[in-house]
Amino acid sequence: MEVIIRPDPTAATQLAAALIADQVRTKPSSVLGLATGATMERLYAELVRQHKEEGLDFSLVRTFNLDEYVGLSPEDPHSYRHYMNAQLFNHINIDIRNTHLPHGQAEDLKLECRRYEALMQACGGVDLQLLGIGRSGHIGFNEPLSALQSRTRDKALTPTTIEQNEGYFPTPADMPRCGITMGVGTILEARDIVMLVTGSSKAAVIAKAVEGPITSMISASALQMHPHCRTIVDEAAATDLTQQEYYHWIFENEDEWRAYR
């Protein structure tokens, strides 16, 4: 894993967006794994800008989202399908038929999870997976004690995740208590991973995920095992990291980052 520290949320977001844009330019038929959340809204806005102003072409791109709430229809304004359409898909030249999320209203959730995994494999697997991190250290809906080799499955949400997300619902009690999520093992099969984390509220948990032991209590810590995971944080999120000087040195000195400096 590489950790890159940028001065502020804008710089961190622009770097993550640049990595995704370069993936699409290098391989126009890329399979992207996508995430939701407030942090991602800024990133998707930057990708939309690059599409409209710089001609970034998504016409051959295929996407798979990390997760979806159980029980919500795609038309529900609180579903992740609605979020993705509103934040990204409706504003770029992607074929909506090539954008995939789990079906939260599937009659057989276990069958739906197997279908989703099979569809990812049929598309050749994920080229680049975008991630955020939850307050409990989860990626997707892989809550504490999620098996590090877990596959796409339905998962009960923790009180921490419910508290973190229920503010998006007009009536907090309406927030679903379960979701469908790619498993930790599924996520680790992506060829490249970019995790974007900003803000002081994530400082403690990102330090545990990046510099702490690999543990199922912090599912994001499994990313330490991935051969090409780049974690991009702003200064506020980096507060509790012990190796900040080294992480700054990486960005300023390694050739991989020359084009992004």
Task: Outline the secondary-structure elements.
Layout: E1 2-6, H1 9-26, E2 31-34, H2 38-54, E3 62-65, E4 67-69, H3 80-87, E5 99-100, H4 109-122, E6 128-131, E7 153-156, H5 159-165, E8 178-181, H6 184-188, E9 192-197, H7 203-211, E10 229-234, H8 244-253
Parallel strand pairs: 1-10, 2-3, 2-6, 3-5, 6-9, 9-10
Antiparallel strand pairs: 4-8, 7-8
Helix pairs in contact: 1-2
Task: State the main characteristics.
8 helices, 16% strand, Rossmann fold, three-stranded antiparallel β-sheet, seven-stranded parallel β-sheet, alpha/beta, 261 residues, globular
Structural class: alpha/beta
Order of SSEs: EHEHEEHEHEEHEHEHEH
Oligomer, anyone? single chain
Overall 3D form: globular
Biggest sheet, in brief? 7 strands, parallel
CATH class: Alpha Beta
Helix content: 25-40%
What is the tally of beta strands?
10
Compute the average pLDDT. 97
Strands ordered across the widest β-sheet: 1-10-9-6-2-3-5
Instruction: State Rg.
Output: 17 Å
Counting structural domains, the number is 1
Strand content: 15-25%
CATH-defined fold name = Rossmann fold
Number of helices: 8
End-to-end Cα distance, whole Å, is 19 Å
Q: Regions with pLDDT < 50 over 5+ consecutive residues?
A: none
Name given to the CATH architecture: 3-Layer(aba) Sandwich
